[in-house]
Amino acid sequence: MIRVAICGAAGRMGREVTRAVSEAEDMQLVAAIDLHHIEEDVGSLAGIALLGVKVESDWKAAALRARPDVMVDFSVHTAVLPNALIALELGISPVIGTTGLSEEEVARLETTAKERKIGAFLAPNFAIGAVLMMQFAAQAARYLPDVEIIELHHEKKVDAPSGTAMLTAQRIAEARRAAGVHPTAAPEGAFEKAPGARGGVVDGVPVHSVRLPGFVAHQEVILGGVGQTLTLRHDSTDRRSFMPGVLLAIRKVRSLSGLVVGLENLL
Ligand SMILES: NC(=O)C1=CN([C@@H]2O[C@H](COP(=O)(O)OP(=O)(O)OC[C@H]3O[C@@H](n4cnc5c(N)ncnc54)[C@H](OP(=O)(O)O)[C@@H]3O)[C@@H](O)[C@H]2O)C=CC1
Ligand SMILES: O=C(O)C1=N[C@H](C(=O)O)C[C@H](O)C1
Q: What is the distance in A from the centroid of ligand 1 to the CA of 76?
């Protein structure tokens, strides 16, 4: 049995992960950490009976008591690094889905996991369709280097652009560099009458972030060429879409060497 702790257990993703872990035959939920709902039991939060597991607020105390093998983090970007450093200090492998980390924070995780020789995993998107979309986008950008990203999420999402859009832009930029191609420059005199109208630029790729009720997690990558466009679109209409990827990461993380980023590296 893999002993699993979940940080952010009472959140939208945390509840779904709680359910998925509790249904997996090779996993046992041993700790649930969140800053809210600490009086409620995870069973009622997730709509399942998980007798004996209470939501706690102190991750280190929970880790020392419950001794998990793996810590899954779907909390907030400010909590990820401290949570993961505690995990690595105690020999627990982190599986991180939380987005919005800085490059410096990812670098710190990488160094610490390497120093401590502990497997760690981070993915901005655990849905297989999103992983394929990112790969197709990178492949297509070699031939159609003019690309823009539109990501659309629920109104409660705090970070923009999404982690998925950030990684997609990074993959597109790498593909452009490898192929030696460049996007078309904006016409001379181009201007924004409303600041931000052309989106935020990530690694040379304009990204447009939409936040509205009714959305879960969606992304379009639009590539333009002479007389044609190619649109790649992925829709997560239910958070269950992320669960097979999360379970896969929980099963594989302890066999990794240091920090691995991106679900494609586990498939
Ligand atoms: N990689 C992927 O495939 C996916 C990633 N995500 C990412 O996961 C993250 C969570 O998303 P979502 O579930 O919608 O967010 P929620 O706000 O619903 O859940 C986050 C939970 O974490 C709690 N929390 C805050 N600080 C801490 C802490 N220090 N320790 C433990 N728990 C804490 C929050 O409590 P409080 O309410 O008090 O702040 C909240 O209950 C986001 O960064 C999102 O982008 C989401 C979907 C898929
Ligand atoms: O906050 C979300 O909901 C999601 N966050 C991740 C991201 O920022 O890319 C993954 C997915 O898009 C859902």
A: 5
Within 6 A (CB) of ligand 2 lie: 99, 124-125, 153, 157, 162-164, 217
> Does one domain contain both 143 and 52?
no
- The percent of residues in the chain predicted with pLDDT above 70, rounded, is 94
- pTM value is 0.95
What's the structural domain count of the chain? 2
The structure tokens listed for 227 are: 């007389």
Token look-up 């304009």 returns: 206
Residue 29 shares a structural domain with residue 81: yes
pLDDT at 51 > cutoff 50? no
Kindly identify the ligand whose nearest atom is closest to the C-alpha of 164: 2
Q: Are residues 198 and 248 in the same domain?
A: no
Query: In a 3-state reduction of DSSP, which class is residue 89?
Result: helix
Q: Which atom of ligand 2 lies at the shortest distance from residue 157's CA? A: 1
Q: What is the pLDDT of residue 49?
A: 45
Secondary-structure breakdown of the chain: helix, strand, coil percentages, each rounded to the nearest 5:
40, 25, 35
Whether ipTM exceeds 0.85:
yes
Asked whether residue 33 falls in the same domain as residue 51, the answer is yes
Q: Domain of 136?
A: 128-236
